[in-house]
Design a protein that fits this description.
15 helices, mainly alpha
């Protein structure tokens, strides 16, 4: 059975690295190295602890964490124009430089609280720049849709591993020196910027604008694609807020575990996410996407319920693992659900989806921070679980009733 050729925007065939070019292995390797190095987040697991130890208060610490996602959301309104003007390679380099500057501002606490605010804004803006081009670049450098999907899945597995190892190392180092974890993350940004220069000149393809009165293009924000977007934004927005803000509070402030154990416990999230990300594609060949979607929602909701009802170590470990399973499967599951979209559209949808996730993450962190600061930790966990459960039920109920095989299942049948 022949595979239809994806639509190519006018002019993209002749653009440097455009959609009509053959695969570019050298640039793909540079992008792969860049993506791994840029995820060496030595500071991330201990960021809440760092802010808390500076006596900022629970609500302010959570708000500062949320400021990152808010900046990503706001920046999404205009960073796309930078790509057209300067090209993806320049945006990756500039984004990493901005992230490094933000990390240095935070780590040195230069300027006090205003410096921390500026650091979070710079870090968020830098991430918005890189995220606007990173995923779409894969489809440009590897025009074959199937190979591009495999590259994305393989890269994601390695990313989880890098995040896990750097997070554990950061938690251990943080016990002895707080500044070093931020310096290491900033050095990783500098190394990632250097790796990005190896991608070479390339521009992202742009889709033609639909004619006035024409039907919505394939990949519009309606129907099945819209439901996958809503699922991803809801699940990841809540799960990442729990991982970055709620669980560190419960472990570090309430349970008062050591920083070494703190890092190991948070690493359980990344181990679970790594394992499920590697198996999701195989599960999709034999299991319906709706069932897997429901399972991920149930994992995240159950995790939050456990965190609301107990502080004992074993149930907490189980809760963190369940959270990692749900959050880790969400990305490959959603990408499979969107795989019918043409490459440029899928890239733009992915970027916008991450921006919306940042806004959801911001809202959950701010509201959750107010609740935690007021001493209502169980209510925050129960409320977050209810959001996931209710939104998930609505999404599942709104899915098309016709049973069509997922792209992964269709590929297996062919």
């Amino acid at each position: 059975m022949s595979t239809p050729t994806p639509a190519t925007p006018p002019g993209a065939d002749h653009a440097p690295g455009g959609a009509g070019d053959t695969s570019r292995p050298g640039a793909l390797r540079a992008l792969f190295v860049y993506r791994l190095i840029s995820r060496a987040y030595f500071h991330l697991p201990v960021l809440f602890a760092f802010l808390y130890l500076h006596h900022l208060g629970i609500a302010l610490a959570q708000t500062l964490l949320a400021l990152y996602g808010f900046t990503v959301m706001v920046s999404g309104a205009f960073v796309g124009r930078f790509s057209a003007a300067f090209g993806p390679r320049t945006l990756l380099v500039a984004g990493e430089i901005a992230k490094a500057a933000g990390l240095l501002l935070i780590g040195t606490v230069a300027g006090g609280t205003p410096g921390l605010v500026a650091g979070q804004i710079l870090s968020g803006f830098g991430y918005a720049l890189t995220a606007s081009v990173e995923s779409p670049l894969v489809g440009v450098l590897e025009p074959d849709r199937e190979r591009a999907s495999k590259i994305q899945a393989r890269t994601q597995s390695w990313i989880f591993a890098v995040v896990m190892v750097s997070g554990i190392a950061g938690a251990v180092i943080f016990q002895h020196t707080r500044l070093t974890v931020f310096l290491l993350s900033a050095l990783a940004c500098a190394a990632a910027a250097t790796a990005a220069t190896g991608i070479g000149p390339v521009r992202l393809a742009t889709a033609p604008k639909p004619a006035t009165g024409a039907a919505a293009p394939k990949g519009s924000w309606t129907g099945g694609a819209g439901l996958w977007i809503a699922y991803y934004v809801c699940l990841r927005g809540v799960a990442l807020a729990a991982f970055v803000g709620f669980i560190p509070y419960l472990l570090f402030v309430r349970t008062k575990v050591s920083l070494a154990l703190f890092g190991v416990l948070l690493a359980v999230f990344n181990v679970a996410a790594l394992l499920v990300a590697r198996w999701t594609a195989r599960l999709l060949r034999t299991t319906s996407a709706a069932l897997l979607l429901a399972a991920t929602l149930a994992c995240v909701a159950a995790s939050l319920v456990l965190l609301a009802t107990t502080s004992r170590l074993v149930p907490v470990i189980l809760a963190i693992a369940l959270l990692g399973l749900g959050a880790g499967a969400a990305r490959p599951l959603t990408q499979d659900g969107l795989s019918a979209l043409d490459g440029p559209t899928r890239g733009r949808v992915t970027v916008r989806m991450e921006q919306l996730t940042g806004s959801a993450n911001t809202l959950v962190l701010v509201l959750g921070g107010l609740g935690l600061g007021a001493g209502h930790a169980p209510a925050v966990m129960w409320g977050s679980a209810a959001v996931v459960a209710v939104a998930g039920a609505v999404i599942l109920a709104a899915r098309p009733t016709t049973r069509t095989p997922s792209p992964a299942q269709a590929q297996a049948l062919n």
